[in-house]
Amino acid sequence: xxxxxxxxxxxxxxxxxxxxxxxxxxxxxxxxxxxxxxxxxxxxxxxxxxxxxxxxxxxxxxxxxxxxxxxxxxxxxxxxxxxxxxxxxxxxxxxxxxxxxxxxxxxxxxxxxxxxxxxxxxxxxxxxxxxxxxxxxxxxxxxxxxxxxxxxxxxxxxxxxxxxxxxxxxxxxxxxxxxxxxxxxxxxxxxxxxxxxxxxxxxxxxxxxxxxxxxxxxxxxxxxxxxxxxxxxxxxxxxxxxxxxxxxxxxxxxxxxxxxxxxxxxxxxxxxxxxxxxxxxxxxxx
Length: 286
Description:
By secondary structure, this protein is an alpha/beta fold. The chain folds into three domains: 30-139, Glutaredoxin; 155-200; 201-286, Alpha Horseshoe (Serine Threonine Protein Phosphatase 5, Tetratricopeptide repeat), CATH 1.25.40.10. It is 55% helix and 9% strand. It contains twelve helices and five strands. It has helices spanning 34-44, 60-75, 91-96, 123-139, 152-162, 166-179, 184-199, 204-213, 218-230, 234-247, 250-264, 272-285, and strands at 30-31, 50-55, 81-86, 104-109, 112-117. It has a five-stranded mixed sheet, sandwiched between helices. α5 packs antiparallel against α6 (166-179) and α10 packs parallel to α12. The longest helix is centred in the middle third of the chain and has 17 residues, at 123-139. The model is unreliable at 1-21 (pLDDT under 50). InterPro entries: Thioredoxin-like_sf, TPR-like_helical_dom_sf.
């Protein structure tokens, strides 16, 4: 693996604080050093993909991602290997991987680097990333692509949605969550299904027109935001409820805030419109 053209340039890690890692607790994965990068890590990538995580003992988030990846390495039964780079002790390696902040993950497949993510994510989302890495690796003749497994409740929900039976789909997702309360896909599926239930039979233009005539009608504004989301008007829906929050108080304000947070969950967490709306919500509350 050749070094990138910006090798040796400084990277901004000024946001990190003093070390917060317990030196007596071993971290999972192979520790990457200048010595073993070429002798061990790169040759290993010819056998199975290697996911390399840049971390720092001064970043609690990066430590948690190391632990999550360590758990997943066990779950995937050695279909891929975890390696980690302590950017404090090996800054030259961090620079070689073009690290700008931590946690930062890359995959090495057949000695080729594939950037993955530059922030902490929940386990469920990291699993999706790993599945894509394994699929990409299999395309290059290294390892096998993951076999997609679908939960019985998910299959039940999908069949119900295809037939337009939202109530049955909602029940399936709730059953899934009762069995796996932290399952992010079930939470997302339930939120999407409930949104479809709330907007079934509504016409966008009609609801928006009615909402403009009654700007203080909270239920109508929530309904308008729902149907805007369904029709792709993410920014319009967020702006509508953020404006409403500024004019509400007490229980009404909490009601609108809760509804807005539910809509936030329907949008990709890296979407700049969501990031901006989160900041505006925080400013309007505090």
